[in-house]
Amino acid sequence: MRRAERLHALSEMLRRSGARGVSAERLAREFEVSVRTVKRDLDALENSGAPIWSRPGPGGGYGLAKGASLPPVTLSPTQAVALMAAVSSAPDAPYSDLAAAGIRKIMEVLDPRTRARADELAQRIWVNAPPASSRAVRSALEEAMAEQRVVRIRYTSGNGTTTIRDVEPVLFASTSGRWYLIGWCRLRDAMRWFSASRIERASVTTLPCSGHTIHEVGEPPEDARPVHNGGE
Fold it and tell me: What is the value of pTM for the model shown?
């Protein structure tokens, strides 16, 4: 991991640690560096304006002042283009509209030279993206997943049978180039995979999910894995 990436990941870990803080030894283990290197990184973050506090002694550690904001993150042109390429090539992915909006915000705050280099590099990347599914359907599925509420869908199976189902969303999955909603189907009283392209209508109900977990789904297919923060 490059130092700039480690500094960003370090600041995020401090932010997540909250009031309890985190020790230099744990940070060193997390990033596979020496305690001395961690302390140099903490000094660098503090010098850049990050409001870092330290608590000496047993049980002590480092953290960020409550309510404080971090200094802006600087991206390289290639990092900015990597984000653009990832979102542009997956318009059907859950929350892709929010991701695209986030990237636009990032591009707006980049310095002019970096933004110009990123724009030039972006012209050298072409994507063959499939057409996105209904925005209304995707919005309903995304909301139901985030709020953990039952979603009512009109679904047409592979054999042409159309049913109305109440589904408790558990996770989204992309495998073999297709997106699926996986959830507890109240009609079948079982966990089911629903191809997003076959969901014709979707509406979020006021009913809360009953607590089904991803462990009931099982292991991801061989060509799928959970998304994760690349810095962790």
Answer: 0.62
